[in-house]
Amino acid sequence: MSAEALKRAIDLIKAGKKVEARIILEPIIVAEPQNIQAWVWEIETRDNDAEKIKLMEACLLHNPDASVIKKALAALKTQQEFPVTTVETQKPEKPVSIRINPFTEMTEYMDEPAGSSLLKTCQYCGELVEETAKVCQACGRDLGVAEPAGDEAVDEEVVKEIEDEVVVEKPNKKKWYRRSWIKILTFFLLMPVWCVIELSDPDARSGFKVISGVLLVFFITLLSLFLYWFFTTNSSRANLYNWYHLLSGQASSSVPGEYVQVQGTIYNPGNSPFSLVELQAKVYDENGNLLGNTTQYLDSAVLIPGTPTYFKMDVTSLLSPFQSGMTKQQVLFYDDFSGKANGWLENSGTEGETTYSEGQYRVTVSSANFDLWSNPQKNFTDSRVEVDTVRQGGPEGNRFGVQCRYTDANNYYFAVISSDGYYGIGKVVDGEQTFLPKNGMLVTDTIFAGSAVNHIRFDCVGSRLTLYINGDYVDAVDDSDLKAGDVGMLAGTFEEKGTQILFDNFVVFQP
């Protein structure tokens, strides 16, 4: 009930009807003398400073811990004891109204720690603010030194005192040797030294000698394991060379996404039977030191008599101490588009064009929101499809990539990227296109912008569809609607037409 009455009183005060509000507030204070908010609004109804002081003192009798009332009372008494005087002609002093902000949240009425700052009045609106505040919360004005209005002047001594009280504390920057990681690193590096000194001291306690001996064995073991890893991963010269490039910020290649590989073709004349072909690649440094080697085996079933078989061996891992492994995957199909023997479609129409172009395969899409693709008429169940792509023309808001398990124009899986940094994995089933998952193309930072080469890899193994871009894993989804089919290359447009993509080094591996 008191809350509703207090609300009515507040509305009356806001409307300027202080006398009517006082009639409502006084019974509330009598019934609930601990209601600080009622006291605050009762004080707000008084225009005379003496009456305000009496009400504040009465409030403190019932609420001796009300810090806000204490501060307001002290500020009001200070204002009366030390009135502000002007240097020039004296004008009738205008009574300064000391007001308690009735909109203050009740959390401010809680006890404050000793030594908290006093309140002061805003010279513009008369509201109480913290003594250290620089902006009034009520009127929003700057609480710096007020500019003299008209012919009034500000006492220079008062201004000087205010400026002396304002102390700007600059953050104390921590010295570099006081940082925690420096201390930890120093402790770790100096620990073996302490162990050696402690063991060599004949007067050292036996307990400290045991501890230092255990720690020294631990550090020696740790160092031995590191050196073993460092010198056995590859040759020491290769490790040091790569570490130097890593620490100096240099790259092993000036072209983004470039990798070192050995590639070529194997021709089987079919004269003699065999089971396997072993391919071995060795990498040497400039001084003839062996950095490493890798081996790849090709089954005789892959090497069709009378047909050149493409192989590719990635030896980038041999140049880095942080990578390892060998490439041992069978090539099921390869085309560098130097000839037209693999059945890629050449066609031209109003929607676009697919054709061979100077050792590459070019797809041009001349219609908006349209896809064009081509297939070599093969059939694979599980496959790993890779291709090099370049945007030759058209908008960056495009899409291009590869297909797998293509049965017809209405059923296939696809993985596409765009020149403006998006990728998508999806399917077309019964003529309906769907992205997997159903949230469209997503952003990735693995795509090279402009006319740079982007290497796309799409693995279709079982129900798992995995996309790699420029050698980096991007995303994977699961779907089991399509089981087997052809592979292919695809390019398309959105709202803007004119997409033109070049494809090269199309290869299908056995996953």
Description:
The strands form 5 sheets. Strands 7, 8, 9, 10, 12, 18, 19, 20 and 22 form a 9-stranded antiparallel sheet that branches. Strands 11, 13, 14, 15, 16, 17 and 21 form a 7-stranded antiparallel sheet that branches. Strands 1-2 form a two-stranded antiparallel ribbon. The chain is built from 9 helices and 22 strands. Residues 86-98, 103-117, 145-154, 249-258 and 321-328 have low confidence and may be disordered. 27% of the residues lie in helices and 28% in strands. It has 511 residues and is of the alpha+beta class. It is elongated. It has 4 domains: 2-165, Serine Threonine Protein Phosphatase 5, Tetratricopeptide repeat (Alpha Horseshoe), CATH 1.25.40; 176-233, no CATH class; 261-328, no CATH class; 347-509, Jelly Rolls (Sandwich), CATH 2.60.120.560.
Q: Which descriptors would you attach to this protein?
A:
alpha+beta; 9 helices; 4 domains; 511 residues; nine-stranded antiparallel beta sheet
List the helices and strands and how they pair.
Layout: H1 2-14, H2 18-31, H3 36-44, H4 49-62, H5 67-81, E1 119-121, E2 128-130, H6 156-165, H7 180-200, H8 206-233, H9 236-248, E3 261-267, E4 276-284, E5 290-299, E6 308-314, E7 331-335, E8 347-348, E9 352-357, E10 360-365, E11 371-374, E12 383-393, E13 398-408, E14 411-417, E15 422-429, E16 432-435, E17 442-443, E18 454-461, E19 464-469, E20 472-478, E21 486-493, E22 499-509
